[in-house]
C-alpha cells in the first residue's frame, strides 16, 4: 500500500512540475520593417511609449526574425534586387536593336525557346516561340506561366527573373533560352 501511495505522489509531483514549467514568456514578437529590409523587434518600453497595445520582445543578435500572427497593413517590407557587376545576365544598355532568338533548351517536358525584340537598348517584346504543349496539363500550366515569365522579363530587362511556381521546368528552360537571346543581342 505504501508503494502505491508513493507512486501516486511521485506521479502527481511530476505532473505539477511539468505543468508549472514556463515554456514561453507569453509575449508576442512583433516584426517591424527596417530601412535595410531586415525585420527587427521593438522592445516593450518603446511599444508602451508609442501607444502600442501589444507587448513585444527584443531578439538577441543570434536569433532569427520571426513573423507575427497579426501583421499590420503598413508592415510590408519588400526585397528588391539591383544588378551588380557579378550578374551573369547581359546588361540591357549594351543590347543592339533587333530581334533575337535564344537557343532551344530541352526540359523534362519538352523544348523551350524564347525570342526577344530589342528597341532603344531595351527589351520591348518577348515571345515564347516553343514550349511544352504535348498534353492538356502542359497547355494548362504554360498558359498561366508564359505570360508571367514574359511580364517578369519586361520588368527586369534581364534574365534575372523569378520562376513560376508549378512550372519550374518551363521557367528554367525559359530563363536559359532568354539568357542565350540576351547574349546574342549583346554581341
From TrEMBL:
Domain (FMN-binding): residue spans on this chain: 108-185
Residue ranges, compositional bias (Low complexity): 49-94
GO cellular component, one term: membrane
Sequence segments annotated as region (Disordered): 49-96
Protein name: FMN-binding protein
InterPro entries the UniProt entry points to: FMN-bd
Pfam families on file: FMN_bind (PF04205)
GO molecular function, one term: FMN binding
Amino acid at each position: 500500500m505504501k508503494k502505491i501511495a508513493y507512486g501516486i505522489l511521485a506521479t502527481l509531483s511530476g505532473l505539477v512540475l511539468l505543468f508549472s514549467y514556463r515554456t514561453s514568456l507569453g509575449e508576442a514578437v512583433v516584426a517591424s520593417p527596417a530601412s535595410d529590409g531586415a525585420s527587427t523587434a521593438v522592445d516593450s518600453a518603446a511599444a508602451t511609449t508609442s501607444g502600442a497595445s501589444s507587448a513585444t520582445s527584443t531578439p538577441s543578435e543570434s536569433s532569427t526574425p520571426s513573423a507575427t500572427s497579426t501583421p499590420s497593413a503598413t508592415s510590408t517590407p519588400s526585397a528588391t534586387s539591383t544588378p551588380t557587376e557579378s550578374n551573369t545576365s547581359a546588361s540591357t544598355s549594351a543590347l543592339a536593336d533587333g530581334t533575337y532568338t535564344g537557343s532551344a533548351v530541352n526540359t523534362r517536358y519538352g523544348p523551350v525557346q524564347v525570342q526577344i525584340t530589342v528597341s532603344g537598348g531595351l527589351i520591348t517584346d518577348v515571345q515564347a516561340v516553343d514550349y511544352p504543349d504535348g498534353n492538356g496539363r502542359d497547355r494548362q500550366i504554360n498558359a498561366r506561366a508564359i505570360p508571367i515569365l514574359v511580364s517578369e522579363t519586361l520588368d527586369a530587362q534581364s534574365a534575372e527573373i523569378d520562376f513560376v511556381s508549378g512550372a519550374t521546368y518551363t521557367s528554367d528552360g525559359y530563363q536559359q533560352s532568354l539568357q542565350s537571346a540576351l547574349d546574342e543581342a549583346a554581341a
